[in-house]
Hints:
Layout: H1 3-6, E1 12-16, E2 19-21, H2 22-29, H3 33-42, E3 52-54, H4 55-64, E4 67-71, H5 91-97, E5 104-105, E6 109-114, H6 120-131, E7 146-151, E8 154-159, H7 167-177, E9 180-186, H8 193-204, E10 209-214, H9 223-232, E11 246-248, H10 257-271, E12 274-275, E13 282-291, E14 295-304, E15 307-308, E16 312-315, E17 318-326, E18 332-333, E19 335-336, E20 341-347, E21 356-360, H11 363-381, H12 389-397, E22 403-410, H13 413-429, E23 433-441, H14 446-455, E24 458-462, H15 468-477, E25 481-484, H16 487-500, E26 505-522, E27 526-539, E28 543-548, E29 551-563, E30 566-567, E31 570-572, E32 576-581, E33 592-601
Parallel strand pairs: 1-4, 6-8, 6-9, 9-10, 10-11, 22-23, 22-24, 24-25
Antiparallel strand pairs: 2-3, 5-12, 7-8, 13-14, 13-21, 14-20, 15-19, 16-17, 16-21, 17-18, 17-20, 26-27, 26-33, 27-31, 27-32, 28-29, 28-33, 29-30, 29-32
Helix pairs in contact: 2-3, 7-8, 7-14, 8-14, 12-16, 13-16, 14-15
Amino acid sequence: MTQAKTNEAQTKVVEIPSQISVRELAQRLDISPIALIKALMSIGEMVSINQTIDYDTAAIVASELGYQVQPEALPEAETAEEETEEALPLWRRWLQEEPPEALQPRPPVVAILGHVDHGKTTLLDTIRHTNVAEREAGGITQHIGAYQIEYNGQKITFLDTPGHAAFTELRARGAKGADIVVLVVAADDGVMPQTREAIDHARAAQVPIVVAINKIDKPNARPDEVKRQLAELGLMPDEWGGDTIMVEVSAKQGIGLDELLEAILLVAEQADLKANPKGRVFGTVIDAKVEKGRGVVASLLVQNGTLRVGDVVVAGTAYGKIRAMFDHQGRRIKEAGPSTPVSVMGFHDLPKAGTLFYKVKDEKEARRIVEALKEKEKSQQTQQPTLTLEELFRRFQEGEVKELRLIVKVDVQGSLDPVVRSLEKLGEQSEIGLRILRADVGPITKDDVMLAAASKAVVIGFNVKPDSAARKTAEAEKVDIRTYRVIYELLDDVERALKGLLEPEEREVFLGEAEVLAVFPSSRFGKVAGCRVRRGVLRRGERVRVKRGTQVVYEGTIASLKRFQEDVKEVREGYECGVGIKGFKDYHVGDILICFTVERVSQA
Length: 604
Ligand code: GDP
């Protein structure tokens, strides 16, 4: 009846782990990656060669190709109930999943950015010293990459990490983890390249900016000139009717700091920052190092939930059980809620700064996730796809990318306006957003590429070329640089990308329905249902709705379909079968399973 059955005599067996790259699966199935990608497309999976797919998807396509599938005997893989998808850095989704009524206000997290020597470190030090009661004994405070102050009874967390990493990368990260950026501009120096860059990064991360015009104690300070320069860049001072708060300060003499902190609290209030202290525990790794006698000491910023001593956390491929936890003043604490920076002991490896950390059930689960991730990294290391206009299309389909982001460089001022205006017009005509993160005159530089890498953008050059540093960085960071000599070609390409990016319409197509006759225990799903197909066909990998009376009690995917212990691709009307649905086990006898497929209709 099915391919697996007719080929019974020569059925080949393939072992599949919980996660596998398309390239690796093709090797195991002994077919070309292209043939496998086509087969995956036929079951509705759009993937690229280096992408990792889960067991269920791999199993479906392998059985389609006539293989008998067995889960690879990874240590503990069978007993683990959760899939490694949990390892994906999806904190944004996690936050959205928190019940709104459980959300509580949390302190703002502030990053201080600006051009070198404009006073970032001095400002951080001054705020710290005037607002943090230093420890009495010895007065030695720990530098954990962040600190928290209390001002007017409200807490503010400052990220305190400038100057000890490749600065563009760090700033990109800093701006991303923060809720507010304080942009420091020296009043005697004005807007400089890294000032512009910081603005671009903050905008790309959609983080509000408060400007601190620093060094106003200096005789050659020209604060109004700075405001004028910033206004030109689209940061209009509030006193001129704009919406950017600009505070004149002297970090060195402590002038204007109250006003700055008040401005931060005001912007924080408008941003309505919330988290669930009782929810899923996760946050960002600020920094980590190995200390003599203490092992790995990691600084973490808790963003949601409450982190406790004894918790097991995973950050990328590092994990550990928290043995001890300290606040930014080196005091031993037992728990830390949202927006709190802490330093912890217990990681087995050094977690990478900037990665997401999250709590898992136990060390066993942590090891399993880390192993799966290492496997994945190994297969991706060979060739991570460049984020090209074409690749953006795929990512858009996966919901990873919501808009087309561009960095535009042109040869002369005269062509900047027409190019930007034409691009913006294309964006307006399209359903997908188009955002120009930077538009400037000059060659494509390393900074442009770093900004593109940090914000998943494509670099467009009009009559300009990347310099050699930019080219090298683009290669390493997998950034797409496109250069054009004719404006129509440029606009054509972008238009096509926008069309490709158009969200396809979805349409449901009924396939069949089955009645649940019995319920059995299953190690993989908890429970599976013994069913008879009453109408049409049930197909593995397709969507399914569980109906009880007139109510739909669950909607998911048919992850396993068996006839007499054997995995099959589909079961037709009149036949009996076993059905496993990922994430569902509450079957009742008499439930109706409705199987359907979702067709995509492109609007292009
Ligand atoms: P960063 O590179 O942005 O972190 O800048 P620093 O904080 O290291 O400051 C650079 C220099 O500017 C140092 O010599 C500081 O003492 C000086 N500086 C910082 N803030 C002020 C200020 O408000 N007034 C004056 N006169 N000098 C300042």
